[in-house]
Amino acid sequence: MAKGKMTSIFFCQNCGYESAKWLGQCPGCKEWNTLVEEQVSKTDLKTGGGVTRRLGAQIQPSILADITITEEEKQVTGIGELDRVLGGGIVAGSLVLVGGDPGIGKSTLLLQVCQRLAAADKKVLYISGEESQVQIKMRADRLGSFATQMLLLCETNLDVIADVIRNTMPQVVVIDSIQTMYNENVSAAPGSVSQVRETTGTLLQLAKGLGVSIFIVGHVTTEGTVAGPRVLEHMVDTVLYFEGDRHASYRILRGVKNRFGSTNEIGVFEMREQGLTEVQNPSEYMLSGRPHHASGSVVVCTMEGTRPLLIEIQALVCHSNFGIPRRQTTGTDFNRVNLLMAVLEKRCGLSLSGCDAYVNITGGMKIVEPAVDLGIVIAILSSFRNLPLDPHLLAFGEVGLSGEVRAVSMARQRVQEAEKLGFHTVIVPKVCEKDCSQVSGIRVVGVSTLQDVMDFLLG
Ligand code: TYD
Ligand code: MG
User: Is pLDDT of 51 > 60?
Assistant: First the structure.
């Protein structure tokens, strides 16, 4: 492509906001110091539109009613946790973005996907711009044996990659990572917003045109030096984020966008010596090592997509030595905890204003669902009163400002999960009690206010 006159544009490396001049704070995502200057040729900016306009006279729109759907067969990867997050399997011609912090296990996961697919006689091509063939081979050796259907390419030039894909026609391609790929026609450095956008656009055309499914790895960075996956979320069909506590061995794969299935599904994995293994029963896994008969600890049930997950909430409340008490939360919303403490103080008469409070969701999980409110309140109450709770007690419900316990969705599934894991008693919002009582083998206690909760626990 002939390069036109160059012009410089400032791109936010976090969200992709464009500006003609430098700004300290990005108006798009409110991050500071994320705008970086990139050289873009004026012809680049004008691409798109022109071809369609010329051919527009010959192209006819289709009648929606006439379009027949051939039921797309989804290609299962054989990794159950991943298949569920993908919405049943890989759709032909789809573009899937796998984002996550460096070192979290994205390359490992995708190499394992390739391993399974190759074993199922699918032609897969793994393209790495980060590691050498020997490095990938060393990683692959840890994961087990690979079938001959698994092809490997170490390359960063997207034109070369596009040719190789056209020539080999694999069914699934992995691009590791998008930040290392470059298009010669774009003058900006690899990893910059314009490069990442341009290369993803090319991959999108390849995927749709050839019916190849492409997985794209994208690193999430906070420094703002490399364009994060957020700038290409809107271009791809599915966005999965791989997250987890660096210090814990489990990893959570979360679907945040999916054109072929429901979002908010999670898959739980554990990083072992031989790669990632699926965690079939995450609730059991999350609760392992829980202290019994300690005050300030209670188990709640949160929903991750369609899946109930039991999590322990811990609170530590002690007298403050300073005028302004210290409050700290890990894994949950700080302001929400402050609000719930105010509700406890006002509606239940607990004098918490002179107390330091620490609330922790164990296992490095992050939960913002209001259904954990009741768990937070009970954990605080238990720690404040120094009252150890029954280890087989579980609670969930949203707490309102007047101290009322409000309904939550999918109450029955939550109670079923609790019953499955051997809990004896579950505290639920009164309105959900009838629905939950249908689950046998567990005592269901319906509460309508925080006072009811206190009466039950202390009475
Ligand atoms: P990797 O997939 O390279 O991360 P990413 O591609 O997201 O940057 O994962 C690297 C980490 O995983 C590294 O710390 C080593 C660890 N690991 C294992 O614990 N077991 C294994 O079998 C493999 C392959 C990696
Ligand atoms: Mg990697």
Answer: no
Nearest ligand 1 atom, CA 274:
22
Using CA atoms, how far residue 15 sits from 35, 36, 129, 222, 396, in Å, is 10, 12, 23, 11, 35
Apex 39 CA angle, 33 and 45, nearest 5? 110
**CB 273 near ligand 1, within 6 Å:** yes
Ligand 1 atom at minimum distance from 139 CA: 24
Q: Left, alpha or beta for 301 (phi > 0: left; psi -120 to 50: alpha)? A: beta
Protein residue with its CA nearest to atom 23 in ligand 1: 275
Residue located nearest, by CA, to atom 1 of ligand 1: 105
pLDDT digits (tens, 9 = 90+) for 160-202: 999 999 999 999 999 998 999 999 888 888 888 888 889 999 9
Does the beta carbon of 107 lie inside 6 Å of ligand 1? Answer: yes
Distance of alpha carbon 312 from alpha carbon 364, whole angstroms: 11
Residue range 402-416, pLDDT digits in tens: 999 999 999 999 999
Find tokens 């450095």 and name the residue.
Answer: 189
Give me 362's structure tokens: 């164990």
Write the residue with the smallest CA distance to atom 9 of ligand 1: 105
Residue closest to 174 by CA, chosen among 136, 213, 210: 213
- Distance (angstroms) between ligand 1 centre and the Cα of 222 equals 20
